[in-house]
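Two records follow; treat each independently.
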Amino acid sequence: MSPRLLARARQLLRYAAVSGIATATSLTVLGVLVGTRSLSPGWANLVATAVGTVPSFELNRRWVWGKTGHRSIGAEVVPFCALSAAGLGLSTLTVTFAGRWADHAGLATSTRTLAVQAASLTAFGILWLLQFAILDRALFRTKADHVETIAIVHTDPSDAPSHDPSDVPSTAPVTTAAPRPALERVVA
């Protein structure tokens, strides 16, 4: 496995771990609020998502993408909260629907709570990979990412291989590094 692919795999594992921590936090809060009927499923989901957003932001920023120092409110916090709000919107619709369905079906409180938690987990699961791409490509991008380089091989047409395997070009291709545009990057 190439070093770059290995680094990407480690980053995805850290991202999954952070997601697990944030999800466990949110689902615990959601379960307590719905299970005790302290709040309706929609409002409970709002509170649970807000609570889970805090460790998600900090752990993603520091551990997954290795950013330290001053947080930019406009470039990091607000966009991250907007992503969380999009997830909140989708999950609130799903938990509200699940809660109404469970009430209409006459489910026991514990079963109703599990249905609401499953709806929340499903909604956030759908957004998980999309959020990774946005965080990686835009939000937590480092300066090094902007000047990432790739090898470009320049060859002289006279160096093109012939159909005769014993014919070896007299000069080897020249390899140079050139900046790689951000939109050409591919998630490994």
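The next record belongs to a different protein.
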Amino acid sequence: MNSGDGSEHRCISWFIGLCIGVLVAFIALIITLTATAKEVRSEYGWTTSEPDNDLATVVFAVSGIVTWVVVALWVHSKLKGSPSTENQLDARVPVRRQPIPRWVKAHLFQACGGQCAGCLDVFRQIGNMQIDHIIPVHLGGTNELENLQLLCRSCNVKKGTGTMLQLIERLRRDGIRR
């Protein structure tokens, strides 16, 4: 669930900026080390029987740059559109529930015939039933009618913040539902 405030986009932009900064610093370090090595060799008159190591330095620098680019792209792909990341980002922001209009409970009661969606018991009075989100709000559930159901108080307490599948498994384990 995206909060719509652009925080995910800012996070990705910040990360890419950090990667670019580290990459530039890495390139500057390689250039400095190469220049320093050349100065030291020429100042002291050191010569080697091997050809100059400039090619090895360039290969090392390019491999380091490619590694940074690959890591940055991999992390960017993980941050962009990852449901688990979105849930983690949203977990930091408390979810504010919107009030559900009173007519919704009456509509759900009529639609389900007063039957609890959990234990399947039938209730004659609407007061004994509670509105429940099929997909919990903290997992991205909404107040749309398609995501609402009626549970008796006992089933609603057992379900808690879990899913409907977890509730049904628990009711079966407890011998309340087949």
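Discussion point: The beta strands are 129-133, 148-152. How would you locate this feature using only the token line?
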